[in-house]
Amino acid sequence: MRSWRDDLRRASSTRAQAPAPTRARASRSARHPRRGGSMEYTRSLTLLLPAILLAAPSAAAAQDPLQELYDSAYVNWQDGAYPDALSQLERLLQTPGGERFLEPVALLTGELYHATEIAPDGRAIQFSPDGRLVAYETGTRETLRTHIVDISGASPRKLREVRGTGLVFSPDGLRAAYIEPPSRPSAALKAAYDDLQRLTAARASREELIRRTRAIAILEALESRIKVQDLVSGRERTIEAEDLAKTEITFSADGSALYVAGFPRGQTDRTVIVAFRDGQRPAEVVTEPGIHENIMAVPGGKHLVYTVNRRTIAVRDLSTGETRTFEGTQPALSADGSTLAFIAQANGENTVNVLSLSAGGDPVVVKRTTAPVAAPALSPDGSLVVYQMMPREDWELFVVASDGTNERRLTYEIQHDVEPRFIDAKTVLALVGEPRHRRSYLYDVETGERTRLHHNNTVRTVAPEYEWAVSRDGTKVLIVADRDGNTISPERQVVLLDLTRKVTKDEVLARIRANLAREQDLRARAEKMFAPIADEVRAAVQDVSATRIYGYANDVYRLGSKHITQPGNHRAIEYYAAKLRQFGYEPEIQWFEPRPGIRTANVIATLRGTVDPDLVYVVSSHFDSVERGPGADDNSSGATALLEAARVLAKRPQPRTIKFAFFTGEESGLLGSREFVRRAAEEGLKVLGALNNDMVGYANDVRLDNTIRYSNHGLRDLQHAAAILFTGLITYDAEYYRGTDAAAFYEAWGDIIAGIGSYPILGNPHYHEEHDVLETVDQRLVAEVSKTTVASIMLMAASPSRLTGLEVTRRGRDVEARWAPAVESDVRSYVVAYRAPGGELRTTTVSEPRARLSDVPAGAEIMVKAVNDRGLESWDWARATAP
């Protein structure tokens, strides 16, 4: 998510852009102090000081009612008081003169630039050189397609679809070349497919599977064909290269030739680069030993740049055939073709190097450092270089002139700043975060001002980004993102952002009103779902102690790495078991041997249910760490939050049984959670729902926020409700469980999972590093997560679970719905809801697991919940569609 500091800087830059808050009500942070210990307090002051200095009001500003309204809305937003903030922002934009706040309001609530969805799914995005067309890929093997879309009109128009990959546009944008995979695989290729399938089923070694997969890739490349299509007429021609396993193609600078890199038939240790021209025999351009790839045809047509064996950069003079080589990686060209930048190592130092292709000579070292450096990029005319460097634990961006002068730091974000690229002479596009959830920003290289680029315009749902492409003129950006927040489905949306077209006031108002309605509805449902047990939950939550959590965290931190191969793993098992006994539990130690000679265990504490003890809810965290570090955030934070939840609930049994599961071996392949699930299946454990928390303790700024990772929408809303009503935690959400212990639950029991974790907003630069240490964790944040967990699991264990077996049959204009009776013994009735033809939501209450509903249109969604004797409803609807 965006940093509040960016909003402050933008809001304070000019009076027309809505200065930063000058006066507002006491913030949530002030009402509920969140940080403990001198380091956290000092960090808070350090973060707040720029805001205090920027916000110092002039006499005129103090008398500006619109400024004061914006200030109050801004503080409410940062405090997570979204309904108040959204109501104020709506009023602000509707007030005469409020238009001057449009840009900061747009950035506070979502996107500044107009976004258009190009496709519901896509990857490998690119623009044509003239910016009129975009291309993206979908599918694999038999379904592999590349789509070409015309974006020059008022709305995107699909122009072509081809069966192929690796598409490149000609310099004039009138042709496209691509590699077409074999439509009828040879007998040899079919046999290779069968062998790989057999070896996979036999669980062959990873090395063998990789070797076979590479062999298949070369066979496929040999049997593939190169096609060149005229994008105006649609006519295609085939380039014959039967003896070449084709790996890469690119047009020459003038478009007269197509360069093809590939393995000669029968060879796997070298690639050649061949030039194909109309009416001429193929000409081998590069035949030297080595793997040649990353071909770049330099504008102007004089040079060809490529890498050799991924550690050498070659610059070939196409007129003389002379080739100069430089030890280095990550080559980058300026748009005008005058300059080349790359990374190298010399005498134990890392260097950023700049080579003038027009003037010749030797590369200029513009940066020499022992710190890691990466990803150089050049301004369009080659006069500036931007690169990423890691001065401490996270990547930052730096800019320097191509002669090595005037170096300056561009970013100061706590998270990683990576993959910079110039979009024009003064603006850099770069990314924040780690690969599972990066966010794009624009940076002014002169002022350092940062503007968020992409957002899905919702308050809560995160939108991880994965790919970015910039048009040559720098006016448009293509992004591949999970714009809907669903990281589980394979589909990722392709979105076009137009940097020449900012959102209008009406569009921002519509966004504000939609989000306000959602927030008000969320809070209304939160109050209703918790009402019967709110006092009990509030009393329990108030017992959660950040001081106790810090004590647990300090204890396990002293154990060092808790990886299954390290002594700290067994010591942690002993520690968590001893603490649980101290709280009154009789923990189960689930010893197992995941690998020969390695013995480890889960620690399970059971709080027996008072009404239906055979029905079980599981709340879990893994306690192990990576081998190289102590894992203070990943995942002692989750485990200590869970330990405190177990302490608080030890004397507060719930209607259904709760198991507190401390898993081992997550970092080694979800070993502990899969062992738990295996045993649970053998025992016939009736698991109705589960929460899994992972990495919950790193605060990027003064806000205490985290992400609800879920597969079940009802549990998502339940956890939002728990955080809103009983804690100071600000919650986002993402449909996410893969790669975590939650995946083991999903595989065993289906859609019953939620929980809290930092990712896919993984802001912690210490993730999986040896410096994931205790002082980087905010224990107040961990305590808020523990409170949310306590409230969530209390409601889950007290409520009916989601019903099963819902079936709907048609009876004329009516439908009959039937479902399996609730498994809970305290259920007294059922609520059935559906949409009438006019859109009105109708509900009815029945005492038996069936209902006859009148005037139900085909396609209407039928929803059913159980209601128990305390008035608590199922935490999720059972759903079916009317035939």
Structural overview:
By secondary structure, this protein is α+β, with helices and mostly antiparallel strands. It is built from 18 helices and 48 strands. Among the domains are: 4-112, no CATH class; 543-798, Aminopeptidase; 807-881, Sandwich (Immunoglobulin-like). A six-stranded mixed beta sheet has the order 33-34-36-35-37-40, sandwiched between helices. A four-stranded antiparallel beta sheet has the order 1-32-31-30, with no helix packed on it. A four-stranded antiparallel beta sheet has the order 2-3-4-5, with no helix packed on it. Helix 6 packs antiparallel against helix 10 (505-530), helix 12 (546-557) crosses helix 14 and helix 15 runs parallel beside helix 17 (742-749).
Q: Brief description of this entry?
A:
It contains 18 helices and 48 strands.
Could you name the CATH topology of the domain at 543-798?
A: Aminopeptidase
Number of helices: 18
Global Rg: 30 Å
Overall spatial form: globular
Give the helix/strand layout.
Blueprint (H helix, E strand, L loop, with lengths): L3 H10 L14 H4 L5 H19 L3 H4 L2 H14 L3 H13 L7 H8 L3 E7 L3 E5 L5 E6 L6 E6 L6 E6 L2 E5 L5 E6 L6 H15 L4 H18 L1 E6 L5 E4 L4 E8 L5 E8 L7 E6 L5 E4 L5 E6 L5 E6 L3 E6 L5 E5 L1 E5 L5 E8 L2 E8 L7 E6 L3 E6 L5 E6 L6 E6 L6 E2 L7 E8 L2 E6 L6 E6 L5 E3 L12 E6 L5 E6 L11 E10 L2 H26 L3 H8 L4 H12 L9 H16 L5 E8 L2 E10 L4 E11 L9 H18 L6 E8 L7 H13 L2 E7 L12 E6 L2 H14 L3 E6 L6 H8 L3 E2 L1 E2 L21 H20 L8 E5 L2 E5 L8 E9 L5 E6 L3 E4 L7 E8 L9 E4 L2
Parallel strand pairs: 35-36, 35-37, 37-40, 38-39
Antiparallel strand pairs: 1-32, 2-3, 3-4, 4-5, 6-7, 7-8, 8-9, 10-11, 11-12, 12-13, 14-15, 15-16, 16-17, 18-19, 19-20, 20-21, 22-23, 23-24, 24-25, 26-27, 27-28, 28-29, 30-31, 31-32, 33-34, 34-36, 38-41, 42-43, 43-46, 44-45, 44-47, 47-48
